[in-house]
Structures are given as structure tokens and as C-alpha cells.
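To close the chapter, one final illustration. This time we ask the reader to focus less on the individual chains and more on the assembly as a whole: which components sit near each other, and how the overall shape emerges from the parts.
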Amino acid sequence: METNNKIINDLVPKKFTKRGIIWTTFLIALIVIGLIAYIDQLIKGQEVTNMRDYALWGIYISNFVFFVATSFVGTVTVAILRLTNNSWRTPLVRIAEIIALAAIIMAGITIIIDMARPDRLLNLFIHARLQSPITWDVVIIPTYIVISLLLLYFPLIPDFAILKNHFKQSNSRWSKIYGKLALNWTGSIPQKILQEKSIKIIAIMIIPVGLLLQTIDAWLFSTTYRIGWDSTNFAPYFISGAFVAGVGALATLIYVVRKVKKLEEYITDYHFDKMGKLLALACLIYLYFNINEYLIPLFTAKKGELTHLETLFTGSYSGLFWLVTIGGLILPIIILLFKKGRQPRTMFYIGLLVVIGSWWKRFVIVTPTLLHPFLPIQGVPESWHHYFPSLHEWLITIATLAMALLIITICVRFLPVIPIQRTIDELQATNANGKNLES
Amino acid sequence: MEEDNKNSRRKFLDKGLKIGVIGAIGGLGLSKISSKLNASNSSGSDEKMELMTTDGTLIHVDSSEVMEIEHCNSHDTKYNVREGIPNRKFVMVVDLAKCKNALKCQSACNKHHYVTGENAWLKVYKMQEAEDTAPYWMPTMCMHCDKPACVTVCPVDATFKRKDGLVLIDNERCIGCRFCMAACPYSTRVFNWGEPGQEVTLNMDLTNHTSSPEHAGMPSIKGTVDKCDFCPHAIEKNELPHCVTACPNGVFYFGDKYEDTVTNGEESLRLSKLLEDKAGYRLMEELGTSPSVYYLPPVDRLVDFKDGLEDFKEFESVEPVEKTE
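The assembled structure is written out below.
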């Protein structure tokens, strides 16, 4: 019982420290700045961006793809690790679910930012045409939001009941809210069976939906004739890339949350070691698809394709291309092969490297292709031959990233980041096992 | 989608049949009928007449039912903007042998479509396939593909394909996602990144104009896509598209594939014969977009390529307008 109380006390959400308040204010400030920039974009039109008729998509789209990719972490860690019975996932799944939810919500918002006529958003439903990949996105993103939300919520129900009791004296208002969210959870056997079943259904559902989400995201590009996008390899390439981005984001944020919430006892070196191995696996798979996407086509590249590949390998985008390939992929693989490379602090830096690499990787996927159309670029101002985001684009994009972090911060503040009930249950199970062995 | 298509096709056929019957009655045996009518009017006989519909079926009609009407000109009939002008299929032929980059087509297009951006809808590319091959000038406009990639990807049916071959844009519906621009292999679509400012730049009175797919650019709408529309507003008035009439060298031929006729304003030619004689081809045939624009290769050129260099501007396709007071 005493250990249970310790676990509860350790894991219940605590008030922001001073640092927490500064962090949140900082994020809100970034969001407000971005919002101002967005309103300005609404008024003046997208001419405030550096996108033009050739570079017709920019970082709004690559940022959107990044968010979609990161949201894949929910599918990977929660569903796959659950179905394969990897028990080390317990202290990590909640944060993974939170990241997934924040990322997919922001993906939905980011794609609207790219729309030049958000006032006509409803046309997507009124005049929807099924053969357009955008319509598929309109279907899959809300679906994934709902499933992610449920996958976060169902396992939280017993924890909400614990929180309700815990805050009864100290904070009756929050106790009431947690109580409402706990849906009269008593922990009875029928309730437990029902909850277990619901989680299982959602966990199985999120796998095809998650895979479809990444696939549709890839099809958004591969359904066009454009050189560099018109690739049958694109869907698995995007899925494996999402695997990398998601696990990278998880490793980074787990480290930060562990430090801030002082959860070293619950999230140990062992967990980081496991995560490191998972990330290494993800990176290796992604490397495989990268070779398929960029190296093998060299052998049969037609003229246009060759120009595209040369731009990436030695041309104007080579710096960025090699940075994301070596920094975001090959270097992490090498470091993660060593046990020392999978220690918490190193994992944090690798995760950060992978996330930044993943973000720029999407930029490298979107932009160079658009600047190599089939017909030469002629008759437009010189500046249209290149693309680098404008101040508006940066401010708005940074705001979307800040908003994702704010959602995560709020969730981490008000939800138990490590499942309390499950931790207790697992501890009791191991204790019981231990006793059995002794007797 | 398929179902939808069938339905609209049925409707279209239905309409076509009606017009056809009237046309047949009015057009085919007009003199005969009228003489018969005159003869039978007083008697009111129940004499039957045999008539043939446009699709070849013979029908019997009581001759007293037959009345003389004015010859029905299908061009005058009101038609659905999204369906297109019935029984037509518009095509263009561009003779590269005649083009010397005079750019009159471009300025006429810019003028009549009130283009205020920095990217013209009609471009004349300076082309050269390889170092050893001869350079040539290649005007491009919207190819009005029969399998348009842009229409496939549009999520809201803002850009659509008509039965008369035209690919048009409903700027009142476009959501500005620019997916069609990404899909088009011909880079023909341009975007209104900001306020088009036609009232200011062109001193254009927009008070009585509502945007119509049939006259793109009048007015342009912020945050939506524009492109060459094959000038249905000119076709309606039995005129040729602005680029065709503006070209001093007769490069552009416009016409109807069903009639197998194209004209550049000076000469009218059989489309099939022209394509056969001059080895016509379509741009990026291998993509399978099936364009409505044909090109004639730049052989036996009447003009020197170098003459066009004078007018060639690498970074400009829309002349800045001098503001008029």
C-alpha cells in the first residue's frame, strides 16, 4: 500500500514550476506572433510567402508532412509494442499517445494554413470529389485524430479515478473534473474487461489507419507526374520515414519529461536502451527505402530524373540533402549501434538530430521537385527560380511547432504522463511472481 | 463518379437528340416539307412522313405535325457552362515552323484576360533539346487535355472538363490548394498569390462583372488558380481566340475536331490532313494526358530563330502596364 501511495504521489500531475511557466509563456508568445503573421497572410493573400507559381508548395506543406509523420509514433509504440507484448513500453506509451495527438491535430491545422481560401473550407465537404487524394486526407486525418484521442483516453480512465481521489482534499475543482472524466470508474471486473476490450479494438484499428495516413500523405505527391514524386516507392518510404520521425520525437521528449518531472526511477536507462534499438531499426529501414528512392534510380535515370538527382547529390540542394541523410539517418545508426550511444543523454541528442533531420528531409522532398518542372522555367522573375521561406512562413511554421509543444505541455501538466494504475498493477504482478518463486 | 458521368451523358444525349430532331426537321428536308405542308394544310390529311434523326433512326411523323421552323444553330442555344457547347470538340494546332517569338499572342492574351501577375498564361519557350539540335520557339497554353491530371486531383471540382474539350476553372469554388498546379506537367497554371488588383493596375471597371469560367481573368480572384481558357467568350461570338487573331505569322490554328477543320484566320484547313502532311504531334504524349493542342514540328522554317531573340525576355512574360490616368 505504501509503495502504491508513493507511486501515486510520484506520478500525479504537479503544478508548473517557475520554469514551466516561463516555457509556457514563451510558447504562447510564439503562437501569438505566428497568429499575427497568419492574419496578415489572410488579409494580403499568400503573396506574403515566398511561394510562387513554380515553388507552389513550401514549408507549410513540408511542415504538414512532418506533423503527419510524427503522429505515426502513436501507431508504432502504442499499437505495435502492445500487440507484440513488449512490457518496456509502459512508462512510454502515454507520452507517445500525447505526441501523436498533438502532431495530428497540428497536421490538420497546418494544411488549412496552406490553403489560400480557408473561407471556402466547407467546399471540401459540399463539393467533395472522391478521386482527389486531398479528399482522402480529409477523411483520414479526422479519423486518426479521433482514434488517437480514444487511444489516449481509454487507458486514462482508471488514472482519472485515482486523480479524483487524490485531489479530493487539496483541489476539489480538479477532483470534480477528473471525476467526470473517470466515467464512474470503480475498477470492478466488468469495467476492467470492457476497458481492456475497448483498448484492444482501438489499438488494432490504429494500425491500418496509421499506415493509411502515411500512405495517403505519400500519394498526395506520387499521384502527380512530377519527377521525384512520381514513385511507387513513395508510400513505404513515407511510412518508414514516419517511423523514424516519431520514435526520434519520442526519445527527445521522454528525456525532457523525465528530467522535468524527476521520473528517473520509472524511466530508466533500460527504457532508453530499448528505445535506442527501436530507433536504430527505424533508421535502418528508412535507409533501405532511401537507397531505393535515390541511389538505384541513378542507374536508369532519364534526363529529367538525372537533373533532379544531381541537384540533390551535387547541386543546389546537396548541402541540405547530405545533412539530412548523414546527420538525420546514417550518423544516428552508427551511434545507436553502441550501447553507450543508447544512454539517456545521448539518446536525447540523437532524437533531436533525427527530428530536425526529419523536418528538413520533408523540405528536401517537397521543394527541389517543384523547381524542376518538365518545361523550362522561363518568363518569370529570377526570384521564382528558387525558394526559401519568407519571414511570414517561418513565423507561422514556428507557431505551429510551438502549438504542438503547447498541446504536449498542457497534456503533460494535467495528465499523469506515466500510467499510474498500470504501473501499480505491474508492480503487484512482479511482487506476486517473486513471492511465488520464494515459496 | 462513373455513375454521375453516365447520368450527365444521358441527359446530354437526351438534349442532343431533341435538338437533333428539330435540326433534322428544320434543316434536312426543309423545302420539301414546306411545299408538302402548303399543299396539305387545307386538307389536313393524315399523310405520314418519313424522317431520319441524327443518330440514323427512321421515324414516321404525321405531316400535319411538321412545321417549318428556323434553322437551329446549336451555337446559339443556351448550354450548361459545365457541360460545354454541344457537339463540338475544340482543338488547336501550333505550327512551330512559323513562330518567331513575336509575342503578339502573349500580349493579346494578357490584355484580353486582364493578366496582372508576373506569369503569363501563354508562354513562348526558347527550346533546344540537345546541344547539336536546332533551337526553336514553342508557344504553350493550356493543353485542354482529354485526360487532365489537374481535374483528377481537384478536391472540390473547381476545375472541370467539358464535353467540348475545354478544361475550365470555377474561381468561385477554388479553395486555393494548388494541387492542380502540382499535377499539371505543362506548368500552365498560374496562381493569384495576392489581390489581382485589376481595377488599379488596368484601370478596369469590375462593378458589373462576376467571375465566370467562360472568361477567365474577368475578374481574377485572389487565392485561386487561373489559366488559358481557350476563349469560350470569343467562340460564342463566332470569333477566334485572342492569340490566334493576334499572331502576325499565322502560327495558331483553332477549330473543331468533329468538323475536322482548323483555321488561323487566313486559311482554313482539314485538321487530319494538316496533321498528316506536317507530322503533327502532341506535347509529352508519353504521359498519356491526351492534349487538345497539336504541334507541327519546326521544319522548313520561314523565319530565322535568331530573329526571335530580340523579343526574348528570360524573366518577364507580362509587360508592366503604364498607368493611365
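Confidence is low (pLDDT under 50) at residues 39-43 of chain B. The longest helix of chain B spans residues 2-28. With these observations in hand, you are ready for the problems at the end of the chapter.
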